[in-house]
Write a structure and sequence with these properties.
The protein has 18 helices and 8 strands. The protein is α/β, with parallel strands linked by helices. It folds into 2 domains: about 170 residues, Alpha-Beta Barrel (TIM Barrel), CATH 3.20.20.450; about 200 residues, no CATH class. Helix 7 runs antiparallel to helix 8, helix 10 packs across helix 12 and helix 12 runs parallel beside helix 15. The two termini are about 20 Å apart.
Length: about 400
């Protein structure tokens, strides 16, 4: 993707989670890297809509943290599947009222960010689908008469609390503490993997040991639903194969053992039947695809596959409720992946740091992480938008 505007922005992202813990949309935050920049709104929309699916279930929320750029987007947007946040102070501006009402007539979804200092008139308020509020704003939300989304939430307890207070959705990450607060070991706990995931772990071990195809097929046949899901992944547009994969044996012939490992890793991180883990699985998939995109400039294909697995597995401790030091005794991973996940060292650790900065939607952390890796904003942002788009094809 070659959009010069991406060189002047810091992008970030977070899921919109409904009360059933289904991720219904992705919010992308857009912040100019320099306050005096005047990024072109048309270029921004072109960069986003080029890769975001125009049809399907995936929805995108744009949270633009620059007044003039946001005004440009509101003036030029014609994409009903794109929802746009409008800060309360802008929504109260009479000069913008006609634009907002025209967007409503065209079916454009708008979100009111924050609480206006003075009540909005009925016609303007009707332009908005939801109110997006910080937790400390919720107490004053009754006057808005809009269903509310709570943003800035981190941790499962805070997500649950927001829904108990009546939120229709939460924008944030439902992992305890910071997004990567480590899972601690429990003395005497047996080193087990959930029963519904054991077939995948066994299959990964057999592939790692180089077992023959017949033995691998025999293992996979113990869970036909996994075989179906694996073939669905391989035949998706995100996988990029030129022919349709008709069987596990056919897949192995096309891919070889090394590439098959990464798709078994994808199965492991998306196969949990725990509904509360859906947003965590959402995060893990995007981490894997983003790290793979960031690795595309590397000459070493093995490192690219390992980066994908590293991102995917970086939340596996939260999914399986075990610390990595214990968990990776049962699940085979390359040494560089183990270093990043267990010791937070090695060549992949800085890339995980960059992914966390994007999830935190922090410009300061974004700058620090990109400078450490000597990556430009355009490269990072292009990778992020591409990864988010690919993820919608696999969800």
């Amino acid at each position: 993707m070659n959009h010069p505007i991406l060189a002047s922005l810091a992008l970030g992202y977070a899921p919109l989670i409904d009360p059933q813990r289904v991720v219904t949309a992705t919010r992308v935050s857009v912040v100019p890297l320099r306050p005096d920049l005047q990024p072109d709104a048309g270029d921004l929309l072109a960069a986003i809509t080029e890769v975001w699916p125009a049809e399907g279930s995936a929805q995108l929320i744009l949270s633009i943290r620059h007044e003039e750029q946001l005004k440009g987007v509101l003036a030029g947007i014609a994409a009903p599947r794109l929802m746009v946040e409008v800060p309360a102070f802008m929504a109260a501006d009479p000069a913008l009222a006609e634009t907002l009402q025209a967007l409503k007539k065209r079916g454009q979804a708008l979100l009111l960010k924050g609480i206006p200092s003075q009540p909005l008139d009925a016609a303007t308020l009707a332009c908005f689908k939801w109110a997006v509020l910080e937790p400390d704003e919720e107490a004053r939300a009754a006057a808005l008469a809009l269903p509310r989304l709570v943003t800035g939430v981190r941790g499962a307890a805070d997500v649950d609390a927001a829904f108990k207070r009546g939120a229709q959705g939460v924008i944030g990450w439902p992992v305890e503490g910071s997004f990567d607060a480590p899972v601690t070991d429990t003395p005497g706990r047996r080193n087990e993997v959930q029963a519904d995931l054991q077939v995948i772990v066994e299959l990964m071990s057999r592939v790692d040991q180089g077992d023959d195809v017949a033995r691998l097929e025999q293992t996979l046949q113990r869970d036909p639903s996994l075989a179906f899901k694996l073939l669905r992944y391989m035949n998706s547009a995100a996988f990029g194969l030129s022919v349709e994969v008709s069987s596990f044996r056919h897949a192995l012939m096309l891919l070889g053992y090394s590439r098959l490992k990464r798709w078994l890793a994808l199965l492991l991180t998306t196969a949990s039947k725990d509904h509360a883990m859906r947003p965590v699985m959402y995060g893990a998939l995007r981490r894997g695809l983003l790290m793979e995109e960031l690795a595309k400039g590397m000459d070493d294909a093995e490192m690219r596959d390992e980066m994908f697995v590293c991102g995917l597995f970086s939340l596996l401790d939260h999914m399986l409720k075990q610390p990595f030091a214990r968990l990776l005794q049962a699940i085979p991973v390359p040494e560089r992946v183990r270093q990043a996940l267990v010791e937070e060292t090695g060549p992949y650790a800085p890339y995980l740091g960059l992914v966390r900065a994007l999830e935190a939607e922090s410009v300061y952390d974004y700058r620090t992480a990109t400078e450490q890796l000597m990556l430009g904003a355009q490269e990072v942002n292009s990778c992020l938008v591409s990864a988010l788009s690919k993820a919608t094809q696999l969800d």
